[in-house]
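User: Second chain of the day. Same drill as before.
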Amino acid sequence: MSIVLEHVSYTYSPGTAYEIHALKDINLEIQDGQFIGLIGHTGSGKSTLVQHLNGLTKATSGHIYFNGEDIYAENYDMRRLRSKVGLVFQYPEHQLFEVDVLSDVCFGPKNQGLSQEEAEKRAREALRMVGISEEYEKQSPFELSGGQKRRVAIAGVLAMEPEILILDEPTAGLDPRGRDEILDEISLLHRERGITVILVSHSMEDVAKYVERIIVMNQGEVMYDDIPREVFRHYKELESVGLAAPQVTYIMHTLKEKGLDVDENATTIEEARETILSAFRKKEIRHD
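Assistant: Same format as last time:
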């Protein structure tokens, strides 16, 4: 289901000495089934933007439409919107509050009006999706590791069967293995269930590997909105606003400068491997 933002602006503490223009005239369409990366330096407006998508924060001006309906219209059902557009916060502790894991994940479905039995069925399915086994169901969520807390927080949103899943820095503080496991599971959900995913991340490698579209925020405005290789082509402009391209892109540019005929706009390890092998094959043919 699509979300359309038209001329959305947001100001913190308007009319005071602390006034900050966090979003400035944002126009975007989030299309069905996309896997989108949202990147930007700290304070760029990306977290503020995603909090608008399910109505947690209301725009100072502009309109947001979900499936063609203005979410700011009188009598609009915000509760229904939040069950369709699920947001997983950067810090899982902000979403975990029940006595045990199963109860925590059941909270959303029960709020949607499901029976205890139906809620538990959905909760267990969601927990298995994110790799949490039955042995953890009666454990306090606050006794879990950082990675497990994140999985439970994600499961709590998935149990409501959202059409759009927003993840704000879901792998912050995790080791490389834990990060890959969570993102692989999210990618699998995206492919198998067709869920629209919006991934807020500081990791350019993660963004390059998983997403099909990147939105770059800078000082409350959309700086770029394109496929990864086109966005990372502007790596020098990204550096000027505190961002970067994936390490692979820098390596490709260095190899190109050294005379190897590679695609300098490769953004993933797989793309790099293919273009490097191709370049060496061409060299061998010329030498023969």
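The longest helix spans residues 269-287.

User: Great, on to the next one.
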